Amino acid sequence: MWRDRRILDLFGIEHPILLAPMAGPVLSDMAIAVATEGGLGALPSAMLSPEQTRAELDKFRAAVKAPVNLNFFCHTPPVPDEKREAAWRARLAPYYAELGVDPAAPIPVSSRTPFDEGLCQLVEALRPEIVSFHFGLPPEALVARVKAAGAKVISSATTVREAIWLAERGCDAIISQGFEAGGHRGVFLGGDAAQQVGTMALVPQVVDAVKVPVIAAGGIADGRGIAAALALGASAVQIGTAYLFCPEAKVNAPHRAALKASWDDDTVLTRVFTGRPARGIANRIVREIGAMSELPPQFPLAGGALMPLRGKAEPAGSGDFTPLWSGQAMRLGRELPAGELTRTLVRETQDRLRQIADH
Q: Which of 13, 197, 226, 329 has the greatest count of CB atoms below 10 A from its CB?
């Protein structure tokens, strides 16, 4: 049924459905469920220690004989700016007072380790079949070592220019991340967030611009969206928000409630939570500080000062200070186990493609 087999053959999977490596919500149990049903499981390593990554991969390998994608960030580490961090903390002071948080307490560390020598050695030891990157690519020498370890390399592009840049530097496939996608934008060549491109416009332009297979991401949550992406020339899709509704997703109660209650126009791009643009459901702190405020420190430092507020609010059922990551298609989400959702997506897509072929 799958006419374009480039991604299937490249990765060794049965169906062109990739689990988005969402840092926080996704661990081995969800990756196993998706891989068992013929999709590509993923493990997000940006917020895991090397030991945690190894442990999660061991669980995956023990449960299923299938390829897996390890995902890493490759941002430039931030330069500490005490003045900016003090201004950010001063802006949050009224919230600290409201929730009874000690304003003088040390700020927790908000860390996302960029891909470096140590993580490259981890990849060389674990030998995942696919390694994906967000925010571009690490230095050329590290990419070469990842490939030498036997991994296919993919990364996210939010514009055609970024896609060409990635293809020229040896990516085996490119994720075309539309404006609709939840979580962090994969932007790495700069540009105004207001100029970001939607999935339907971006995918065919990327397909025309590069020779490697393209993976569509953003606003895809059912068989209609997958069939549309394939019709636009994508060889596969990467799905994130739809999997947040699964019981395997490590999503706290306020986040899960927001996903169920929100409308299509309730998400915004915001810098408030990490210092980089990311799409999530607008909540109190986003509205009061301003979604794209310049106050938050450089990525990923902004999140540290919010942790004490989250620690108070979330147990009380409030998502006022929580990053409620979501794409724009959250109303298409279904509360199904991840394996059942994957099977459903395959069936819906094949039914839709048959309908198109019959006409």
A: 226
> What does DSSP assign to residue 151?
-
Please list the residues that pair with 281 across neighbouring strands. Answer: 267
Strand-pairing partners, residue 270, are: 278
- Euclidean distance between CA atoms 20 and 165, whole angstroms: 22
pLDDT for 108: 81
Q: Are the beta carbons of 156 and 134 closer than 8 angstroms?
A: yes
Rounded Cα distance, 56 and 42, in Å: 10
Provide the whole-model pTM. 0.96
The residue behind tokens 């299923």 is 64
Confidence (pLDDT) at 51:
97
**How far is residue 229's CA from residue 237's CA, in Å, rounded to a whole number?**
7
| Cross-strand pairs, 70 | 43, 131
Name which of 84, 91, 73 is nearest 155 in CA terms.
73
Q: Which ranges of the chain have pLDDT less than 50?
A: none
Which ranges constitute the DSSP H helices of 169-306? 199-209, 223-231, 241-244, 253-261, 284-289
Phi–psi pair at 339, nearest 5 degrees: -65, -45
What are the structure tokens assigned to 261, written together? 């209650």
User: How is residue 236 annotated by DSSP?
Assistant: E
The letter for the amino acid at 133 is: F
Helices and strands in the chain: count of H runs, count of E runs: 14, 11
Beta strands in 48-151 (DSSP E): 68-73, 130-134
Name, in order, each residue with C-beta under 8 angstroms of 2's C-beta and a sequence gap of 6 or more.
8, 15, 16
With 0-12 / 13-18 / 19 or more C-beta atoms within 10 angstroms meaning exposed / middle / buried, residue 266 is middle
Q: Which run of H or of E encompasses 84?
A: helix 82-99
What is the per-residue pLDDT for 109? 78
Which residues, other chains included, contact 301 with Cβ-Cβ below 8 Å and sequence gap of 6+?
Answer: 78, 80, 85, 110, 275
**Per-residue pLDDT tens for 262-314?**
999 999 999 999 999 999 999 999 999 999 999 999 999 999 999 999 999 99
Eight-state DSSP code of residue 332: G
Two structure tokens written together for 349: 């897509």
Q: Encoding tokens for residue 210?
A: 């590069």
